[in-house]
Design a protein that fits this description.
The chain is α+β, with helices and mostly antiparallel strands. The chain has two domains: about 1-75, Glutaredoxin; about 85-200, Glutathione S-transferase Yfyf (Class Pi), Chain A, domain 2. It contains seven helices and four strands, in the order E-H-E-H-E-E-H-H-H-H-H. The longest helix has 30 residues, at about 85-115.
Length: about 200
């Protein structure tokens, strides 16, 4: 069993943090998404979408998409529960995770892919106006998350979850996207310091 990744990319980092929280060791295989490694015939047979990470099981079966990989390991190793506990807990984690992934992480990704010069050969066409339009959407979502963290220790409640993992990776990804968290969002600053101090954040 191994995970194919590009270590510097944000999505593989989500999986590494998740596995570190679970205490799971696994082999990683590096591919360079910037040089075209993911368009090779070998990799496309595993993931025609040409994205990392990709989990390859011992029987050769491939599972792509970060959250799908995390769910696979959650089923095998349910403790600690990173997708919530009980019907309400799981629903809350799912709700908040979708908000973070679609409302924050994806918006930051659009800014990065459409404005960073190094992404021009991967994002065709690169539309600068779309990148700029997403900057305000990032701030709007940060504002909502800051309000949420006024009364919640973590994104989805009292326990650390995959929603926090995705939010941490998203906010750290703001740096290469040339974005910053406004100083007035003090609850996000507090939360970010707390989750960044977890050993898994360095995975």
């Amino acid at each position: 069993m191994r995970i194919i990744e590009t270590r510097r990319a944000p999505n593989p980092r989500r999986v590494r943090i998740f596995l570190a929280e679970k205490g799971i060791d696994i082999t990683f295989e590096e591919r360079d998404l910037m040089s075209g490694d993911l368009s090779s015939t070998d990799f496309q047979t595993k993931n025609p979408w040409q994205r990392v990470p990709c989990l390859v099981l011992d029987d050769g079966h491939a599972i792509s998409e970060s959250v799908a990989i995390c769910r696979y390991f959650e089923e095998l190793n349910p403790e600690p529960p990173l997708f919530g506990s009980g019907a309400r807990g799981r629903a809350d984690v799912e709700m908040w995770h979708r908000r973070v992934e679609l409302g924050l992480f994806d918006r930051i990704t659009q800014v990065f892919r459409h404005l960073h010069p190094r992404m021009a050969h991967l994002e065709k066409p690169q539309i600068a106006l779309w990148g700029e339009a997403n900057k305000s959407k990032v701030i709007d979502e940060l504002s909502r998350l800051n309000a949420r963290l006024q009364s919640s220790k973590f994104i989805a409640g009292d326990a650390f979850s995959i929603a926090d993992i995705t939010a941490l990776v998203a906010i750290d990804f703001m740096k290469p996207a040339k974005l910053t968290v406004p100083d007035e969002f003090k609850n996000i600053v507090r939360w970010h310091a707390d989750v960044s101090a977890r050993p898994s954040a360095n995975a």
